């Protein structure tokens, strides 16, 4: 499976537009509610392309293979053929074989229905937590892990809206514009992974989050006018959170210390930190205190040059009124 590509991530691997470039681990959204034990033909889930397992994700491969074996053993123990089982859970026979062989990642409703059909008493449904993590690319899981541990995060985003601030529609429009293109299924997988990371805004105790966005990125109507308006509304919503500082770097600024590109700094409760900048230290993540001080100096200077948080929210409200 392709890794995200438009955001540069810490490990030097590809990523998608607007994500922090520092590695971290995946938070998974809550699993969907269980479906009925049997699904009528008109309600059956089509045998659409599922999410393939990333062969480079050793942990993910092991999880999906284990789940597949358990599903097969349970099905055979009750004497059900794959076709019969597929009809009961609303999937095609071919998809049943692919999931049981560890070649496809089962969706939450598949495990819930399988648990009910096979009378597994919750054992199969309990696998949803690990399976949900596997659904997201390895590097996104790593990124979300660091974000979940950070007590303070500062991000300057130069060309796009940061991934944590994006709406699903905006993120989808970005993925669909990638070249070479993602398949529709891959795009949805990436959107789901990005939206799962937004749980950082719901953490308690709340981390201190600071974002500086370029004005140009706010003016670009990615996805069309309605998607653009929704994105601006999302920025206002997040910017008003008590633990979030959102600033805009205006195009008319005569001094700009961030022209070398994105900067991210994450700080942790034990006093350690990790940072990365497109224009420093070969773009690689750094844990070195001296290098981190340089990144913090640059980020602090950028914040001083940007509009104040109050001015920034007023500016976004103005853009929304003009849209």
Salient structural properties:
single chain; 323 residues; alpha/beta; 5-stranded mixed β-sheet; two-stranded antiparallel sheet; 12 helices; 7 strands
Secondary structure: elements and pairs:
Blueprint lengths: L50 E2 L5 H20 L4 H8 L3 H8 L3 E2 L2 H10 L10 H7 L3 H12 E8 L10 H9 L7 H13 L11 E7 H5 L5 H15 L4 E6 L13 E6 L4 E5 L11 H17 L3 H14 L1
Parallel strand pairs: 3-4, 4-5
Antiparallel strand pairs: 1-2, 3-6, 6-7
Helix pairs in contact: 1-5, 2-3, 7-8, 10-12
Describe the structure.
It is a single chain. By secondary structure, the chain is of the alpha/beta class. Helices cover 43% and strands 11% of the residues. It contains 12 helices and 7 strands. The chain has helices at 58-77, 82-89, 93-100, 108-117, 128-134, 138-149, 168-176, 184-196, 215-219, 225-239, 289-305, 309-322; strands spanning 51-52, 104-105, 150-157, 208-214, 244-249, 263-268, 273-277. The protein has a 5-stranded mixed β-sheet, with helices on both faces. A two-stranded antiparallel ribbon has the order 1-2. Helix 7 (168-176) runs antiparallel to helix 8.
The strand line-up of the biggest sheet is: 5-4-3-6-7
Q: Report Rg.
A: 22 Å
Main sheet overview: 5 strands, mixed
What's the number of extended β-strand segments? 7
Strand content: 5-15%
Question: Unreliable runs, pLDDT <50, ≥5 residues?
Answer: 1-16, 20-50
Task: Indicate the mean pLDDT.
Answer: 83
Secondary structure tally, helices = 12
Summarize, please.
By secondary structure, the protein is of the alpha/beta class.
């Amino acid at each position: 499976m392709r890794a995200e590509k438009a955001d540069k991530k810490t490990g030097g691997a590809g990523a998608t537009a607007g994500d922090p470039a520092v590695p971290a681990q995946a938070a998974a959204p809550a699993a969907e509610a269980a479906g009925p034990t049997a699904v009528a033909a008109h309600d059956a889930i089509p045998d659409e392309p599922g999410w393939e397992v990333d062969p480079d994700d050793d942990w993910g491969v092991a999880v999906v293979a284990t789940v597949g074996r358990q599903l097969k053993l349970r099905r055979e123990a009750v004497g059900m053929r794959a076709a019969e089982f597929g009809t009961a859970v609303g999937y095609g026979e071919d998809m049943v074989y692919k999931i049981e062989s560890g070649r496809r990642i089962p969706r939450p409703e598949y495990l819930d229905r399988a648990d009910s059909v096979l009378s597994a008493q919750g054992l199969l449904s309990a696998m949803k937590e690990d399976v949900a993590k596997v659904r997201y690319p390895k590097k996104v899981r790593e990124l979300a892990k660091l974000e979940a541990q950070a007590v303070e995060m500062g991000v300057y985003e130069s060309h796009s809206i940061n991934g944590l601030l994006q709406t699903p529609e905006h993120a989808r429009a970005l993925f669909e514009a990638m070249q070479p293109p993602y398949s529709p299924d891959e795009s949805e997988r990436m959107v789901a992974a990005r939206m799962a990371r937004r749980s950082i805004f719901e953490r308690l105790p709340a981390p201190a989050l600071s974002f500086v966005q370029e004005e140009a990125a706010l003016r670009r109507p990615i996805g069309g006018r309605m998607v653009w308006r929704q994105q601006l509304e999302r920025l206002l919503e997040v910017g008003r959170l008590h633990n979030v500082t959102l600033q805009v770097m205006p195009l008319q600024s005569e001094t700009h210390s961030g022209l070398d590109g994105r900067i991210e700094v994450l700080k942790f409760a034990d006093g350690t930190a990790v940072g990365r900048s497109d224009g420093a230290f070969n773009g690689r993540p750094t844990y070195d205190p001296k290098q981190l001080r340089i990144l913090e100096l640059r980020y602090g200077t950028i914040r001083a040059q940007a509009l104040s948080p109050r001015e920034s929210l007023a500016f976004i409200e103005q853009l929304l009124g003009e849209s």
